[in-house]
């Protein structure tokens, strides 16, 4: 039910974010906390999650830091424990976040207290769905997040996830926008500290479509899809920890 509410809210939020002059607000590099009320995530709830994560960051002792939006937030506990229980891993995903929100969170909430060995980053899909930005704009946001992470955690390795495919059909404009974005994001891989990985193909059918059994709303993952993603992520994280 929550996933359906989130999907139905996307069009509402795109309209809400439009300014009086018809321009869509830009989120990519605008460093800001959550400022929009969503039916599935109030500002108060976002603030509460941020406070909880700040307290977790202040305690430290995190080797693998997951950063992202609802796709990261949504890891089922069983799959999280199964795939990442042997790591000192922490989930800092918050639903609805765009790159500007992520930049703000990195500058606040005791994030500078952490010394992760690996950062698993997935961000950007909400820049499309909630902010109406172009692939080039979203790329500048992801580029800024990666730069901020390099400054905060110079010794960490960043596992930079490609934005996952969306929409059922491969020729849908939102899907092609994601593909265009990922071609740019791939250039951030330096083979030393930033490692780009595109796990998107594991969620696609042979004809390129997305099954409802993988993404019921063609955006968020089922537990089985998280299992497949975890199977792919786990060995990559283990290699980067060594």
Q: Any descriptors?
A:
9 helices; alpha/beta; 242 residues; 45% helix
How is this structure best described in words?
InterPro entries: SGNH_hydro, SGNH_hydro_sf. This is SGNH hydrolase-type esterase domain-containing protein. Belongs to the 'GDSL' lipolytic enzyme family. Platelet-activating factor acetylhydrolase IB beta/gamma subunits subfamily. Keywords: Signal. Residues 66-227 form the SGNH hydrolase-type esterase domain. By secondary structure, the protein is α/β, with parallel strands linked by helices. It has one domain (2-241): Rossmann fold. It contains 9 helices and 5 strands, in the order ααβααβαβααβαβα. It has a 5-stranded parallel β-sheet with strand order 2-1-3-4-5, with helices on both faces. Strand 4, helix 8 (173-185) and strand 5 form a beta-alpha-beta unit. Helix 5 (99-107) packs parallel to helix 7 (135-152). The longest helix has 19 residues, at 223-241. It is globular, with a radius of gyration of 17 Å. The N and C termini lie far apart (40 Å). The model is unreliable at 1-23 (pLDDT under 50).
